Every structure is written in structure tokens, then in C-alpha cells.
UniProtKB/TrEMBL annotation:
<feature type="region of interest" description="Disordered">
    <location>
        <begin position="1"/>
        <end position="29"/>
    </location>
</feature>
<dbReference type="InterPro" id="IPR044148">
    <property type="entry name" value="ALDH_GabD1-like"/>
</dbReference>
<keyword id="KW-0560">Oxidoreductase</keyword>
<dbReference type="InterPro" id="IPR016163">
    <property type="entry name" value="Ald_DH_C"/>
</dbReference>
<dbReference type="InterPro" id="IPR016162">
    <property type="entry name" value="Ald_DH_N"/>
</dbReference>
<dbReference type="InterPro" id="IPR016161">
    <property type="entry name" value="Ald_DH/histidinol_DH"/>
</dbReference>
<keyword id="KW-0521">NADP</keyword>
<dbReference type="InterPro" id="IPR047110">
    <property type="entry name" value="GABD/Sad-like"/>
</dbReference>
<dbReference type="InterPro" id="IPR016160">
    <property type="entry name" value="Ald_DH_CS_CYS"/>
</dbReference>
<feature type="domain" description="Aldehyde dehydrogenase">
    <location>
        <begin position="17"/>
        <end position="465"/>
    </location>
</feature>
<feature type="compositionally biased region" description="Pro residues">
    <location>
        <begin position="1"/>
        <end position="12"/>
    </location>
</feature>
<protein>
    <submittedName>
        <fullName>NADP-dependent succinic semialdehyde dehydrogenase</fullName>
    </submittedName>
</protein>
<dbReference type="Pfam" id="PF00171">
    <property type="entry name" value="Aldedh"/>
</dbReference>
<dbReference type="InterPro" id="IPR015590">
    <property type="entry name" value="Aldehyde_DH_dom"/>
</dbReference>
<comment type="similarity">
    <text>Belongs to the aldehyde dehydrogenase family.</text>
</comment>
Length: 467
């Protein structure tokens, strides 16, 4: 008890998430961390919202999704600028990301109800019907690299399903998380249908254990996925994991070499190389290896890193100085193992976490450094004697997210589709996600699927009714 006349105890300042612009190193907006009481209130609000939202009609849910799409479109430039300031992606790519989000909301508004149609069966004892029903509040733990798209591919199907969403966004992009909530609320979502939780990663375990949370989805690192899977397993809760990748980009002699080179550059430096499905390992048939490397090197040397607000910049900085240090350490380890850095892969002078695009060759595939995900605009290029060697190289990593293969030989195409160990393969194209098709990986790239009808069904109760 405070004694009479004694000074009041000092006020505890709330912890803050303060963004750092990776292009300038300057601090930006700050968002206060939720207190324990505020977090509990958010959970109670989610539980209350679910009790009502689960009974709404598909027409009401799809109408909300359409209005959310309109909010994203009407505020596209503001949203894009927040992402560019918080994690450094070019404004051009941030605008494209926002538009893609609007398209995803519209896709589920227009096509989603058909994905939830009940199915009828005849059993030995009579008719049965399988219905898709909501489950409850779903927690999403999301990364900074695509701060809107990663969230929306969870949020859109969650809202359509009749569930409610709770977002724990990355510390770097709390402003983006708050902006998403603003867009959904402005579209007329009932209180608690979607909420951003400004909390640190250390509080995720307790959230997963909370009985008001019924399932969790995570996109992030392998380490984060292990922690979330362990917590979900202890609490017997459904989990979807989309983790890292070290995607192969295989080029065969029958391919259109110019098209392959052009797409290889885009696939490696998009988002400054910070994408799980960026092509990270170029595996080229020996017959065209020299020709590919010459053209690929020339194109990669021409990639311009600069102010992400400038439309002339091909890529912005890495997301943080910490990310740049991590990358430089990885490149150093690869070179000490025998890899040769042909050019680039260097920290650029001046302010900001900028790095030059580069190419590594002769990296021993079995070295631990080569088994890691390289989240930066540096490509590893490998030579393969034949298709068997190419597939073996593609599969000789612990990841299995995506892949891209370049061939005009139908027999080779069938081999790649059948034998590459990955959740996705693009043929004569750069791999990209789409709201219409399932997205996800195998091996240490995670399990479960996002997007398409399968992503919608992941967090729903497939209830069978007999009679």
C-alpha cells in the first residue's frame, strides 16, 4: 500500500512497435503493444463475433468481401506507401500487391459459395450429406515480406467460411496489420470479425493454448513453424504451415533460352529476393550452361537497386539491416565452402539496407550453407549433366515448396511434374501464387494449403449428416 504523502509510483510506458524505414534507416510510425487486458478483450470480442457471424448467409459474407475489395482499391496508394516504408519493397510492387489482394477478396466473393456446396452420398443405410461448416476464431501468424497478400490469403477465406480472424503480424509491419484491420472495419465488418493483435512473438504460444482459438496458420521461417506446430500439437489444434523454400529453376536445352533468362532474373530479384517462392537455385543443363550463364549474368548486372519510391528502381533495400547482415554471413560461408561469387552480393554504400544483385557458382550442394534459404537477390547457379542430375539437384535440399522448369519436351515435362519433390511446379513460367489455385509445400516447407477451394476448406468442419 502506498504511504500517505509518498510520490505516486512511476507510470509504466507501454512497449512500442516502431518501424524502421530500410531505405533510410530512419524510424517511422509507432504502434503500442497490447496489454494483457486488451489482448483478452480482443479474444472475447472474437468469440462473441463468431457466435453471430457463423450463422450469417453466404450473401452477407460475400457482400462484405466485395466491400473490402473496394476499400483496398480506394486506398491502394496509402496502403502501398505503408508497406514500402516498413519493409522496403518498391512502390510499384506494393501497389500490385494491394490490387492482387482486392482480386482475392472478389474471387472468394464470387466463387466461394460454390466451393461450399454440400455433397450427397448414398450409403448402405441410406442417404448422407457432407456440409462445410465454420470452426471458430483462427489465429494467423504472418511475415513481413508480402505484408498484405500473406494476410489476405488467410483473411478472405476465413471471412467467407463464417470464421473470424486474429492476426499476429510481423514486428516490422505492424502498420500494415493495423491498416488491414482498418480496411475491413471500414467495409462494415461486424466488431471482432477481423482484428490485428499488436503483440510480440513470445505471446503466440499462450494464444494458441487459449481455448477461444480453434486453429492457427503460419507463414514464416522453419524455426517459427516448428514452434507453432509444437504449440498446436500440445493443444490438439489444426495448423497450416507455409515455411521456407529453396526453389529450383531448371532450364533444359529444348527451352526458349531468352524467355528463361528473362524470367529467371525476375524470379530471383522480385521483392529484393525476399520471397519463399523466389527461384533461388538455377539448375542448367550442361549443353546450354555457358550460354545461360552469360546472358543471366548480363541481365543480373543490369538490375538497379534504389529508392523504392522511384519507379525506375528494379528493387529496393532488404527489409532490415539485420536481414542484410544475415545474408552477408551466408554468402561468406558459401564462399569459404568453395563457392565463387562472380559479382554482386555486396552491401551497397550509404544509407539503407541495400545490396547488389549477384551470382554464385560452384557451391557444394551438400554444404550446410547451401541447404539454407537465401533471402536476398543472389542466385546460385548449378550445372546438371542430364535430366536425372537436374532432378537430383532439385530435390537435394530439405525444402519442397515450389519449382520452375523450362522445357519444350513433353517427356521431360512429365518427369519434372512427377519427380520434383515440391508442392508446386510451374512449366515455362515463373512460379506465382493465385487465389484460384492451391498453394503450399512439402518436406520442411510445411504442410496444408492456402488459396483455392482447399485453402478455404482447411479451417472448416466437414460435417457428415446421415438421413
Amino acid at each position: 500500500m502506498q504511504e500517505a504523502g509518498s510520490p505516486p509510483p512511476p507510470m509504466r510506458c507501454p512497449s512500442m512497435f516502431t518501424s524502421i524505414n530500410p531505405a533510410t534507416g530512419q524510424p517511422g510510425a509507432s504502434i503500442p503493444e497490447l496489454t494483457a487486458a486488451e489482448l483478452d478483450d480482443r479474444l472475447a470480442r472474437a468469440a462473441s463475433a463468431y457466435a453471430a457471424w457463423r450463422t450469417t448467409s453466404y450473401a452477407e459474407r460475400t457482400a462484405l468481401l466485395e466491400r473490402i475489395a473496394e476499400q483496398f482499391e480506394a486506398n491502394a496508394h496509402e496502403l502501398a506507401e505503408i508497406a514500402t516504408r516498413e519493409m522496403g519493397k518498391t512502390l510499384t510492387s506494393a501497389l500490385a500487391e494491394v490490387q492482387k489482394c482486392a482480386g482475392a477478396f472478389r474471387h472468394y466473393a464470387q466463387e466461394g459459395p460454390a466451393m461450399l456446396a454440400p455433397a450427397s452420398f448414398e450409403t448402405a443405410s441410406g442417404p448422407a450429406t457432407a456440409r462445410w461448416l465454420p470452426m471458430g476464431p483462427v489465429l494467423a501468424v504472418m511475415p513481413w515480406n508480402f505484408p498484405y497478400w500473406q494476410v489476405v490469403r488467410f483473411a478472405a477465406p476465413t471471412i467467407l467460411a463464417g470464421n473470424v480472424g486474429l492476426l499476429k503480424h510481423a514486428s516490422l509491419t505492424q502498420g500494415c496489420g493495423a491498416a488491414i484491420e482498418r480496411m475491413i472495419v471500414a467495409a462494415g465488418a461486424p466488431s471482432g470479425v477481423f482484428q490485428n493483435l499488436a503483440i510480440p512473438s513470445g505471446k503466440v504460444d499462450a494464444l494458441i493454448a487459449d481455448p477461444r482459438i480453434v486453429a492457427v496458420t503460419l507463414t514464416g521461417s522453419e524455426g517459427a513453424g516448428i514452434k507453432v506446430a509444437e504449440a498446436a500439437g500440445r493443444n490438439l489444434k489444426k495448423v497450416v504451415l507455409e515455411l521456407g523454400g529453396s526453389d529450383p529453376f531448371i532450364v533444359m536445352p529444348s527451352a526458349d533460352l531468352d524467355a528463361a533468362v528473362q524470367q529467371a532474373v525476375t524470379a530471383r530479384v522480385q521483392n529484393t529476393g525476399q520471397s519463399c517462392i523466389c527461384a533461388k537455385r538455377m539448375i542448367v543443363h550442361a549443353d546450354i550452361y555457358d550460354a545461360f550463364l552469360d546472358r543471366f549474368s548480363a541481365a543480373m548486372r543490369a538490375v538497379k537497386a534504389g529508392d523504392p519510391m522511384d519507379p525506375a528502381s528494379d528493387m529496393g533495400p532488404l527489409s532490415s539491416e539485420e536481414q542484410r547482415r544475415t545474408t552477408l554471413d551466408q554468402l561468406d560461408a558459401m564462399q569459404r565452402a568453395g563457392g565463387k561469387l562472380l559479382f554482386g552480393g555486396e552491401a551497397l554504400p550509404g544509407k539503407g539496407a541495400y545490396m547488389s544483385a549477384g551470382i554464385l557458382v560452384d557451391v557444394p550442394i551438400d554444404h550446410p550453407a547451401a541447404q539454407e534459404e537465401l533471402f536476398a537477390p543472389v542466385a546460385m547457379v548449378f550445372k546438371a549433366a542430364d535430366i536425372d542430375a537436374a532432378i537430383a539437384l532439385a530435390n537435394d535440399v530439405p525444402f519442397g515448396l515450389g519449382s520452375s522448369v523450362w522445357t519444350n519436351d513433353p517427356v521431360e515435362r512429365e518427369r519434372f511434374e512427377r519427380d520434383i519433390e515440391a508442392g508446386m511446379t510451374a512449366v515455362n513460367a515463373m512460379l506465382a501464387s493465385s487465389p484460384e489455385a492451391p498453394f503450399g509445400g512439402i518436406k520442411r516447407s510445411g504442410h496444408g494449403r492456402e488459396l483455392g477451394p482447399y485453402g478455404l476448406h482447411e479451417f472448416m468442419n466437414l460435417k457428415t449428416v446421415f438421413g
